[in-house]
């Protein structure tokens, strides 16, 4: 890239010119060309092979919100003072 001719790296260039850290320094035409080339190679399939399959909730395990609601109901009317529970 051209900024290297001036002895800068991407991080320094972005800081010097106030560009966001996540901003790409590639021109849009080159980004589109690279994207098209990756799609032509079906590069997404390569990445998907390395991602483990999604695993759902084990059978019999309740939804987290349901468990929290039940616990909340069980605590109604119970106050804790210094670690001791008291009923009202």
Number of helices: 4
Could you give the count of β-strands?
2
Proportion of strand residues: 5-15%
Give, in spatial order, the strands making up the sheet with the most strands.
Answer: 1-2
Report the radius of gyration as a whole number of Å. 28 Å
Report mean pLDDT, rounded to a whole number. 80
**What pattern of helices and strands is seen along the backbone?**
HHHHEE
End-to-end Cα distance, whole Å, is 72 Å
Structural class: mainly alpha
Fraction of residues in helix: 40-55%
Specify the overall morphology. Answer: elongated
- Give the uncertain stretches in residue-range form: none
Largest sheet: 2 strands, antiparallel
Structural summary, described in words:
The chain is mainly alpha-helical and 88 residues long. It has a domain of 43 residues. Helix content is 44%, strand content 9%. A two-stranded antiparallel ribbon has the order 1-2. A hairpin with a 2-residue loop joins strand 1 and strand 2. The radius of gyration is 28 Å and the shape is elongated. The model has no long low-confidence stretch (mean pLDDT 80).
Describe what is shown at a glance:
This protein is mostly helical and 88 residues long. The protein is 44% helix and 9% strand.
Features:
single chain; mainly alpha; 44% helix
Strand and helix layout:
Blueprint: H1 10-16, H2 28-40, H3 43-49, H4 64-75, E1 78-81, E2 84-87
Antiparallel strand pairs: 1-2
């Amino acid at each position: 890239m051209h900024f290297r001719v001036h002895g800068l790296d991407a991080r320094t260039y972005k800081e010097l010119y106030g560009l966001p850290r996540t901003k790409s320094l590639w021109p849009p035409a080159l980004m589109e060309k690279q994207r098209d080339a990756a799609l032509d190679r079906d590069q997404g399939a390569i990445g998907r092979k390395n991602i483990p399959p999604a695993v759902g909730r084990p059978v019999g395990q309740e939804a987290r919100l349901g468990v929290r609601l039940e616990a909340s109901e069980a605590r109604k009317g119970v106050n804790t003072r210094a670690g001791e529970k008291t009923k009202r």
